[in-house]
């Protein structure tokens, strides 16, 4: 009597972090296609503030031979991201096919959509240190002991919670140039070798 080897299952292809259902699958099973209900994405669960969509209008798309297009639906929503409500409705179309949406039950909506305190504003310094090799080069070229470069922040987005410090203002975020904490400290000597 021989014993069969255990069956080994191998998965191929790209993995995903999505946990949920496509938006059309959720809304198609709700009364009035879920208008007034609240959905969220598992991608938003990394934030401590509430992130959700309140459904305002649902529109079906024409039939398509492409299976990816057949799973899409056009939805107008009221978007709340990290506790900040978007002033104008947003249309969801390109991401509606992703199996990442979750319906919030009616009895949990009030708790899920709670008001939260605003995030503290991060104030970054106007200038930061240059990388070590460039610092050594600039010391030789300009004679400055500690050359610095201006910090540039992303200017896009509606709800910025960060900015550059004004002239004479003390920043509350420290930006340093370095390697950070190495994965294996044995590979890096305790003292930096001088660049010749």
Automatic annotation (TrEMBL):
Protein name per the record: Putative ribosomal protein s34
Keyword Ribonucleoprotein among record annotations: yes
GO molecular function: structural constituent of ribosome
A Pfam family that the UniProt record links to this protein: MRP-S34
A GO CC term assigned to this protein in UniProt: mitochondrion
Key words of the record: Ribonucleoprotein, Ribosomal protein
Record-linked PANTHER family: 28S RIBOSOMAL PROTEIN S34, MITOCHONDRIAL, SMALL RIBOSOMAL SUBUNIT PROTEIN MS34
InterPro entries from the UniProt entry: Ribosomal_mS34 (IPR032053)
């Amino acid at each position: 009597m021989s014993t069969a080897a255990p069956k080994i299952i191998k998965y191929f292809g790209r993995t995903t972090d999505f946990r949920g259902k496509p938006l059309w699958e959720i809304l198609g099973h709700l009364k009035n296609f879920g208008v007034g209900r609240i959905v969220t994405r598992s991608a938003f669960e990394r934030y401590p503030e509430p992130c959700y969509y309140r459904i305002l209008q649902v529109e079906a798309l024409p039939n398509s031979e492409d299976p990816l297009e057949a799973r899409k639906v056009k939805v107008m929503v009221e978007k709340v991201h990290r506790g900040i409500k978007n002033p104008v409705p947003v249309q969801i179309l390109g991401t509606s096919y992703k199996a990442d949406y979750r319906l919030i039950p009616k009895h949990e909506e009030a708790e899920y959509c709670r008001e939260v305190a605003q995030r503290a504003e991060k104030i970054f310094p106007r200038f930061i240190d240059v990388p070590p090799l460039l610092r050594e080069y600039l010391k030789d070229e300009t004679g400055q002991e500690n050359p610095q470069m201006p910090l540039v922040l992303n200017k896009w987005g509606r709800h910025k919670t960060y900015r550059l410090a004004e002239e004479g203002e003390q920043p509350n975020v420290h930006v340093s140039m370095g390697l950070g904490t190495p994965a294996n400290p044995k590979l890096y000597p305790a003292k930096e070798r001088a660049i010749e």
